[in-house]
Amino acid sequence: MVCGHSIVLQGTCCQCGSAVMDESNKLIPFEFLAKGLKLSPQYVGFMKRHTMINTLKEKKKLHLVLNLHGTLYDYGRISAFSDREKHLVGEVDSRDDLWRITARSHQGLIKLRPFVAEFLREANKLFTLHAYSLSPSDHSDYMLKLLDPHQTYFGRRVICGRDTRDTWMKTLDLVLVDERVLVILDDQCSSWWADHTNHLLQIMTYRYFKRPTTSGSLFANLFNHVKRYLFGYDCDQLAPKSYSEEGTDESAEDGGLANALRFLRNLHQRFYDGEYKDVRMLLHAS
Ligand SMILES: [Zn+2]
C-alpha cells in the first residue's frame, strides 16, 4: 500500500521513513507543535474530527481561539508617548496591569485589558483555549508568560505569525479542531480569511495608549502639514484622548471581555442543551 506521507517531520515521513520534499507545497506546516512538522490536509481533517469527538464526549467543552494584541492587551511604544502618557513609565513597578518590554529594540509598555485574568480563568472551564497572534512574536511570547506562566490555559496551542506559511492572514486550517465546535474571539475581522469569519465573535478593540496621528509615512506627514497650513488646526489636537491620557480605563464589569464571557457562557449552555449542533448557528442566531 502506498504511504500518503501524512505526518512529515524535518523532511522525513513518520510512517514510512521516506524523505519527503513537498515541492508542490501541499503539506501544512505546524511549527508551533513541533519544529519541522508538516501534516497532509487529509490528516488535518482526520485530526479535526477526532478532536471534536473527544471534545463532545469527554470534556463537555468547546474550543475558543483568542487573538492577543487589541483583544487581551494593548502595547505602546514609549518614544511615541504624549506628554500626558509619560508618567506611566514610572508606574510600572507599582501596578500589576502594566509591564515594560523591549520589542524589536524598542522600549514599550504592555497594558493588560481589565478583566483579562478572570476571563481566562472562567473561559478555560468551558472552552479549550488557543492563542493565535500575528503580532511580533516577542510581544506574544512576553504576553503568554504574563498571562499563562505555567501553560495552564494554552499549553502548546499557541500559533504565532512566525509559525505560519501566511504571516498576514489567519486561518482555522492550523487549529486541529472540527469547525462545528470552534469560536474565535478577535477584534479584527479582517485578519481572518473570509471563509472563517462566521466563527467570529468580534470584540471592541482595546486601545489604552494614544495612537500617533501621523503614521510616519511621507504621505501622512504631508497631508497633516497641509491641513495645518490650510485650515490652521493641528491633527494631534483633534485626536480623541486615550484611556492613558484621561487616567481612566475600560470598565472591568461591563467592558469588552466581561460581555464576551457572558455571551460565551450562554453559547456553551445552548450548545450542550442540544439547541444547535454547530456554534456558527449560535453565533449568528438572532
Ligand atoms: Zn510516508
From TrEMBL:
GO terms for molecular function: RNA polymerase II CTD heptapeptide repeat phosphatase activity. It catalyses: O-phospho-L-seryl-[protein] + H2O = L-seryl-[protein] + phosphate; O-phospho-L-threonyl-[protein] + H2O = L-threonyl-[protein] + phosphate. Coiled coil: none annotated. It is found in: Nucleus. Residues 57-229 form the FCP1 homology domain. It is an enzyme of class 3 (hydrolase). Keywords: Hydrolase, Nucleus. InterPro entries: Fcp1, FCP1_dom, HAD-like_sf, HAD_sf. It comes from the Eukaryota. Its main location: nucleus. Its EC number is 3.1.3.16. One of its GO terms (cellular component) is nucleus. PANTHER family: RNA POLYMERASE II C-TERMINAL DOMAIN PHOSPHATASE-LIKE-RELATED, RNA POLYMERASE II CTD PHOSPHATASE. This is protein-serine/threonine phosphatase. The lineage of its organism: Eukaryota, Viridiplantae, Streptophyta, Embryophyta, Tracheophyta.
